[in-house]
Structure formats: structure tokens, C-alpha cells
Amino acid sequence: MNRFINKIQGPRAITLFYFFLLLYTIAALIWWGILLHNQSGELSSAEIKNLELKIDSLQKPVEYQLGLEQIHRKEELRTWMYLGEGATFLLVILLGAAYVYRAVRKQIRLSNQQHNFMMAVTHELKSPITVARLNLETLLKRKLDEDTQRNLLEKTLRETNRLNHLCNNMLLASQFESRQYHLVKEVFDFSRMLLQCVEEIKTRTSTHVIKGEIIPDVWVKGDQLMLQIAVNNLVENAAKYSPKGSEIHIRLSSDIHKLLLQIADAGGGIPDDEKEKVFIRFYRIGNENTRKTKGTGLGLFLTKKIVEQHEGEIKVTDNVPKGSIFEIIMPRFMTDKL
User: Are 248 and 315 in contact (CB under 8 A)?
Assistant: First the structure.
């Protein structure tokens, strides 16, 4: 028994076993219908013989014909009843099978995504911890000049910030899924917040050129901390998937009612059939064994959740000549300054 269970544990084996059970159930239903049809014919034959014993077809042809028609009518009604019941059972079986199949496939996909997520998180947690530990051991064991010490401390701080960002994303993802996080909305200058984010990103990102094109005095009503996390997630995502030394453009424009935030990179771009999937929790293009870039599949998921809770929308389009543009459209708050 254990050997049989082990054989059907793989997704492909489970699918084959599932379809085998489904076909067996449908075959049993068809066989049940055939048996009932044969039984109905036998019952009609018995009723006809009984009719012949009671009524002589030659002496009472009219009564005999009426009885015969009544028997055939009852047989026809039974046939339609069996067909109706069989069709109903078949429909219920197919609908239930489709629902179960979709649920199982969804669970398998989620399980695979969680497995990939655990592999990514393990790497993402281990890497900054290892770097920080090596830097601190170097500072303790060796006498270094002031510039070298400062460089090691700055690297350690960047790794701890990266670790803190990862932990925050994991915590927020859990809170959003369980609907435990409530936004603290206030009216603030989104342009100023974005400029501060750009300056902060420039200080901790040396691998890419960050350029900001931000119009002033764009105010919004929302959770400033959450919107900062959303912007940071998009910029970090752009940095992960674009070549080192390339430019990342952060643009903010608006009209009277809406603001438009664009973050453009010069990476490889995202295929059209993946543009919606990248916002799914744990989803990453490819798999952890072939993927070269780091990540957990939470950044874009969180960003979409944050934007939606601010009554906005997010989408990704192609950049020209290459790369991707993530666009956020949100309501603009009108103030007396405008």
C-alpha cells in the first residue's frame, strides 16, 4: 500500500490517477444506464406476456391494442427518466470533477511557488547574514585603516537594510493576506516623498543610474510608509532585471484628478503572457534552479496590494527600445495650494 501511495505522489501521476477515477465513474454510470435500459425492456416484455394471458388479441383487439400502447408508453417514460437522471448525474460528476481538478492544480501550483519561495528566502536570508558576519569578523580580527573600516561598515549596513526590507515584505504579505493591516491615510506631498525616495535610492544603489523626473506639488491621501515601500519595490525590481550601469527612470506626471508614476528600466522586458502573472504572490518568471536574479516573488505582489488599497491601478508595459515600464495611476488630492 505504501509503495502504491509513493507512486502516485507526483503531480503527473496524481493527474493520471484522477482521470482514471473520473473515466471509471463515467463508465460505471453508462453501464448503469445500459442495465436499466435492458431491465426496462425485460419488464415491458413481461407486461406484454401478462397482457396476452389476460386479453385475447383476436377477440378483443381494441382492448389489447390499448394495453399494448400503455405498456410502450410506460417503457418510453422510463427511458426518458433514466436519460434525465443519467444526464443529471453526468453533469454533476463533470462539474464536480472540473472544480476538483482546478482546485488540485491550483494547490499544486501554489505548492510549487511556495517551494520556490522557500528556496529564494533561504538564499536571500543567508546571503546578507553571511556578508555581515564576515565583515564584522574582519573588523574584529584585523587592524584596518579608517577608510577600509568605513567601507566594511557601509556594506554591512546595506546588507542589514536588505535583510530588513525582506522581513518587512514577508510580514506585510502575511498581514495583507489575513487582512490584518489597516492603512493609516493622511494628506501629504507625494512629489516630496518621491524625491526623498530617489535620493535615498541613489545613496544605496551604486550599480545603476537613477534619474528622476518629478513634477512638484502632487498631493495624495494615503499611507506614506506603504507608498514608499511600493516605490522601493518597483525600483529594486527594475535594478534586479536590468544590466549594471543602465538607467532607471522615475517619472511623475499628473492631471487634475489623477497622478501617473512610471518606473522604467532597460532590462530584458516581460513577455505579454507574463505581464499579469508577475503580480501574483510568490510568482517569478522561470524557476529557482535556472533563474539568475535574486528575489522572493513578494515585491510586485505587495506593490499591487498597496496600490489597490489606495484606489489605484498598476500595470506593466514595454519600454522602447527594450525593458519594462511599471505604471501606477492613483487619485490626486486637491489642495488649496494647487
Answer: no
* pLDDT the model gives residue 288: 45
pLDDT above 70 covers a percentage of the chain that reads: 83
Instruction: Tell me whether residue 29 is exposed, middle or buried, using C-beta atoms within 10 angstroms of its C-beta: 0 to 12, 13 to 18, 19 or more.
Output: middle
Q: Are 319 and 311 in contact (CB under 8 A)?
A: no
Domain positions in the chain are 2-112, 186-331
Q: 3-class secondary structure for the chain?
A: CHHHHHHCCCHHHHHHHHHHHHHHHHHHHHHHHHHHHHHHHHHHHHHHHHHHHHCCCCCCHHHHHHHHHHHHHHHHHHHHHHHHHHHHHHHHHHHHHHHHHHHHHHHHHHHHHHHHHHHHHHHHHHHHHHHHHHHHHHHHHCCCCHHHHHHHHHHHHHHHHHHHHHHHHHHHHHHHHCCCCCCCCEEEEHHHHHHHHHHHHHHHCCCCEEEEEECCCCEEEECHHHHHHHHHHHHHHHHHCCCCCCEEEEEEEECCCEEEEEEECCCCCCCHHHCCHHHCCCCCCCCCCCCCCCCCCCHHHHHHHHHHHCCCEEEEEECCCCCEEEEEEEECCCCCCC
Question: Would you say residue 7 has pLDDT above 60?
Answer: no
Examine the pLDDT at 338 and tell me if it is beyond 60: no
pLDDT at residue 312, as a whole number: 92
pTM for the whole structure:
0.58
Given the candidates 3.30.565.10, 3.40.50.720, 3.20.20.70, 4.10.520.10, the CATH classification of the domain at 186-331 is: 3.30.565.10
